[in-house]
C-alpha cells in the first residue's frame, strides 16, 4: 500500500453498518438459543428477558464503535453487563464457536475475522470472571 493511501478501518473493510448489523442479527439469533449458554440459568433468564431487537441494537452499536465506525456505544461496560451472569470459560468457548459459524456463513475473510476476534478476546477478562471457574 502506498504511503498516501491511509489504511481502511476494519469497519470500512467489513462493509459498514448494514453488513455489520446483518452479521450481528445472525449471531444473536444463534447465541440466544444455544443450549450450551442457556444451561447457565442466569444467562437463560437474561436471554429471555431482554428483547432481541434491543440486544442486537446494542451489540451492533458496540461492534461498530470498537472497529472504527462513527457510532458511539451507549450501553453498559462489559463488566457491568455480564458480572451478574457468572459466565464460565466453557460458555465463552461456545460463544466463540457460534461466532465462527456466523463468520463462516457470511464468508468473512480471514484477516478481518482475526482482527475482530482479537477485539472480542480483549473483553474476556471483564466477562469471564475468576470466581466463575
Ligand atoms: C459467553 C459470552 C457471552 C454471553 C453468554 C453473553 C450474554 C449476554 C446477556 C445475557 C446479556 C444481557 C444481560 C442483562 O441485561 O442482564 C448481555 C449483554 C450485552 N453483551 Fe454479552 N455475552 C457474552 C459476551 C459478550 C461479548 C464478547 C460482547 C462484546 C464484546 C458482548 C456484548 C454485550 C452487549 C453490548 C450487551 C448489552 C449491554 C447493555 O445492556 O447495556 N457480550 N450479554
Automatic annotation (TrEMBL):
GO molecular function: heme binding; metal ion binding; oxygen binding
Record keyword Heme present: yes
Signal peptide (residue range): none
Protein name stated in the entry: Truncated hemoglobin
Keywords, alphabetical: Heme, Iron, Metal-binding, Transport
Positions that bind heme: 82
Domain of life where this protein originates: Bacteria
Biological source species: Chamaesiphon minutus (strain ATCC 27169 / PCC 6605)
Amino acid at each position: 500500500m502506498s504511503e498516501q493511501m491511509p489504511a481502511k478501518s476494519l469497519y470500512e473493510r467489513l462493509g459498514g453498518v448494514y453488513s455489520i448489523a446483518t452479521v450481528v442479527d445472525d449471531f444473536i439469533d444463534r447465541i440466544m438459543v444455544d443450549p450450551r449458554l442457556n444451561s447457565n440459568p442466569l444467562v437463560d433468564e437474561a436471554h429471555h428477558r431482554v428483547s432481541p431487537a434491543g440486544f442486537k441494537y446494542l451489540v451492533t452499536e458496540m461492534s461498530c464503535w470498537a472497529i472504527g465506525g462513527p457510532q458511539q456505544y451507549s450501553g453498559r461496560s462489559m463488566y457491568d453487563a455480564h458480572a451478574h451472569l457468572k459466565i464460565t470459560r466453557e460458555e465463552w468457548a461456545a460463544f466463540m464457536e457460534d461466532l465462527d459459524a456466523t463468520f463462516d456463513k457470511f464468508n468473512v475473510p480471514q484477516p478481518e475475522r482475526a482482527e475482530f476476534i482479537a477485539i472480542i478476546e480483549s473483553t474476556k477478562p471483564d466477562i469471564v470472571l475468576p470466581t466463575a471457574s
